[in-house]
Each structure stands twice: as structure tokens, then as C-alpha cells.
């Protein structure tokens, strides 16, 4: 709690005034991260086609510093949260992030922008795996070019043309 208070510029007692305990604060940090993902999905959905949506998605992810995504990286610590709270958070995350990406992928399949022989769920997992480096690890030179390359692999494959 001391580190969190220092990071946000308040005292530890002020944190405890707003958050009853560490678990409540932890879940609030995670929920804030999901709110960021929801805003990214909404912005992405305003684009007319899959390629534009993916560019919007990657641009939004790259616009954030990697430190910003620490909240989601903390999700691995959910095992320390009460089962009911953990289930609530996981359901919210799935609905917002996986649901938003899955809907985009499904619509892309329907428009003929993606292969029909792969399920939306499989393509969504593939996209998430490909984009993971953009939201993990330290910032590095060339992140934008890496984002373009990762999108090219998702949309066009990695085999020579």
C-alpha cells in the first residue's frame, strides 16, 4: 500500500479512507485497466473495416506506456482475491476485452476479411497472442514498427509471398 500511495501522491491513510483493504484497492486497479480496454474497444469499433479497426487497436495500445499496462499484468495475482470478486472481475474482463475483440473478429469473418475455416475464438486468441508484446515488457525503440509487423503477420501470415 505504501508503494501505491507514493505512486499516486497520497498518504497511506488517504488510500485506506477510500479503499477498505488491499483487495479492494487491487480490484479497483484492475477494473480501471478494464475501463481503459473498454475505451480502446469503443474507439476501434468506430472504424469501417477490420484492417482499420486493428490499426486503431494497435495505435491505442502503443499510445500507452508499458507502465500503464501494469494493472493488467497484475491480473496474474487474482489468486489472492476472494473467489466471488475474482469471478466478477474475470467475467467483466472477458465481456469487455475478449467480447469486444471476438465481435470484431466475427464481423471481419462475415465481411470476408478473415478466413472462415477458423473460429472467431481461435482467431481472437491468435490476435491476443500476437499483440501481447505491445502491452508487456519495457518500452523499446521501434515499438511502432513492431506493431505494424505484428499486424502484418496476423493479417497476411508469416510465410513468404
From TrEMBL:
Residues 1-37 form the HTH tetR-type domain. PROSITE patterns: HTH_TETR_2. Keywords: DNA-binding. The keyword DNA-binding applies. InterPro entries: Homeodomain-like_sf, HTH-type_TetR-like_transc_reg, HTH_TetR, Tet_transcr_reg_TetR-rel_C_sf. It holds the Pfam family TetR_N. GO terms for molecular function: DNA-binding transcription factor activity; transcription cis-regulatory region binding. This is Regulatory protein TetR.
Amino acid at each position: 500500500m505504501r508503494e501505491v500511495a507514493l505512486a499516486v501522491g497520497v498518504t497511506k491513510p488517504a488510500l485506506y479512507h477510500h479503499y477498505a483493504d488491499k483487495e479492494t484497492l487491487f480490484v479497483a486497479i484492475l477494473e480501471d485497466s478494464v475501463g481503459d480496454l473498454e475505451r480502446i474497444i469503443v474507439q476501434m469499433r468506430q472504424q469501417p473495416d477490420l484492417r482499420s479497426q486493428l490499426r486503431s487497436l494497435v495505435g491505442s495500445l502503443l499510445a500507452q506506456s508499458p507502465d500503464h499496462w501494469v494493472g493488467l499484468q497484475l491480473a496474474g495475482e487474482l489468486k489472492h482475491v476472494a473467489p466471488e470478486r475474482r469471478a466478477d472481475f474475470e467475467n467483466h474482463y472477458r465481456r469487455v476485452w475478449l467480447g469486444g475483440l471476438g465481435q470484431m473478429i466475427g464481423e471481419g469473418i462475415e465481411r470476408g476479411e478473415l478466413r472462415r475455416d477458423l473460429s472467431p475464438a481461435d482467431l481472437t486468441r491468435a490476435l491476443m497472442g500476437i499483440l501481447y508484446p505491445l502491452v508487456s515488457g519495457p518500452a523499446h525503440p521501434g515499438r511502432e514498427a513492431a506493431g505494424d509487423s505484428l499486424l502484418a503477420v496476423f493479417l497476411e501470415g508469416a510465410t513468404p509471398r
